[in-house]
Design goal:
Layout: H1 2-51, H2 56-74, H3 83-92, H4 97-100, H5 106-122, H6 129-146, H7 156-172, H8 175-188, H9 194-212, H10 228-261, H11 270-286, H12 295-303, H13 311-326, H14 334-349, H15 357-373, H16 376-387, H17 394-416
Length: 417
């Protein structure tokens, strides 16, 4: 009897592993193809502005309306940022798919993909990384529900955690950051069986790394040498500034998104159309660095020997991101946060020409991302992996991230009072 149980357990373990490899591979291939297409369409939008700028005033409003209407008609949870709601529901019951099915299902995944692609082709400034995380979690949750009879020891919440890690790891080619993201999330939450979540996430991330990891980092950038004595004060100021601006940025995103999504009459159709007209003018006036997902802009800034972005381009991107998000188009805020942070770092470096500009760029990227994401250690590891930095730079990146995230939270508490 004991021998039979062991054999059954071994069969379950093997079938679970094979099914996990299938789910991870299917999700990763989908997300990788989506990310490549997203980047290509963003470059098409930039080239269109260069070659035929007048077309922007017709294409952007039309594409924004289509993108936002797809979400509103077929899957309202595909726009905005609703993954947090699903995670909150799974805290109460880690296996209640009915409570999270409106946030995590295949329809949400497909509409989020199509809507975000249309928005970026139209000239929006939202990113691909947020959708990558949400879509991975949605695919994992849907397949876990479909094959739940083969997965007796793995909760739905565990699958969703592993899915978020997979999406982040694939989008940034940063498997360590994917695992750290889940660990940091769980450390702040009261999930049941946190050890199981972490263990299964590490298994999934290991599969992702073995099959899909690329040895080259996302950004081509040199290793930095931080000097505490001469650089600490300006870098702290950059982190504090990023925390403050990120709070204003997120507050505006959430406020206008909720206000416009509450419109129930046919007047709503004017929202994405008017947003598209405003974005067309912003793109025309502020230039190609003020829109698209942000990865290419960040790379060009990191590759430049002199400050590349002006105040016009940085604040143009901030406004573009807020307006695109509020209009109801699908897309994420992770890569835009990095691009905005890079811009802030670029502007700040002009005040300290004797210091390495690259340090300001990385501190700006890390700080703004940490404040928007709400997970400072994850933000530091993302930048560490994405730019191929030496491990000894992690404490400096983490320090800036913690300062910015703390500033964000403190301002939020002051506002609530």
């Amino acid at each position: 009897m004991i021998t039979k149980t062991k054999k059954q357990s071994r069969v379950i373990d093997i079938s679970t592993l094979l099914l996990t490899i299938f789910v991870v591979s299917l999700t990763s291939v989908f997300v990788i193809k989506y990310c490549y297409l997203f980047d290509d369409l963003g470059m098409v939008a930039k080239q269109r502005l260069i070659d035929h700028p007048i077309f922007t005033f017709f294409i952007t409003p039309a594409f924004f309306w289509v993108s936002a209407y797809l979400c509103r008609l077929y899957s309202p949870k595909a726009s905005g940022n609703h993954l947090g709601y699903a995670l909150s529901e799974l805290k109460k019951d880690p296996n209640d798919f009915d409570k999270v099915s409106t946030f995590l299902n295949i329809r949400v995944v497909m509409i989020k993909a199509v809507s975000s692609l249309i928005a970026t082709l139209g000239g929006g400034a939202l990113g691909k990384e947020g959708p990558a995380v949400h879509m991975s979690a949605g695919i994992f949750a849907s397949l876990a529900k479909k094959y739940e009879r083969f997965l007796p020891h793995i909760s739905l919440a565990t699958w969703v955690s592993a899915g978020t890690a997979t999406g982040l790891a694939i989008a940034f080619n940063a498997p360590i950051a994917g695992a750290v993201f889940v660990i940091e999330k769980l450390s702040k939450s009261r999930f049941k069986d946190s050890k199981g979540h972490i263990t299964w996430t590490l298994v999934v991330i290991s599969i992702v790394t073995i099959i899909f990891y690329k040895p080259n980092p996302l950004f081509n950038f040199h290793n930095l040498i931080f000097q505490i004595s001469s650089q600490s004060v300006p870098l702290i100021l950059v982190a504090l500034t990023c925390g403050l601006l990120a709070f204003l940025f997120q507050t505006a995103n959430n406020y206008f998104y909720l206000k416009f999504s509450e419109i129930s009459s046919n007047w709503w159709h004017l929202v994405p159309i008017c947003a598209g007209i405003i974005i067309a003018y912003l793109n025309f006036y502020c230039g190609i660095y003020s829109f698209s997902g942000g990865i290419h802009t960040s790379q060009e800034v990191l590759s430049s020997a002199t400050p590349l972005l002006s105040y016009k381009e940085v604040f143009g991107r901030i406004l573009n991101t807020i307006i695109t998000f509020a209009s109801g188009c699908a897309g994420g805020l992770i890569a835009p946060a990095m691009a905005i942070g890079t811009g802030i770092g670029s502007l700040a470096s002009s005040f300290a020409p004797n210091l390495d500009m690259g340090i300001f760029l990385l501190i700006g990227m890390t700080s703004f991302l940490a404040a928007v994401l709400g997970e400072p250690i994850t933000a530091a590891i993302v930048i560490y992996e994405a730019t191929g930095q030496n491990a000894e730079n992690i404490p400096f990146l983490a320090g800036a991230a913690i300062i910015a995230a703390t500033t964000f939270k403190v301002i939020g508490k002051i506002k609530l009072r």
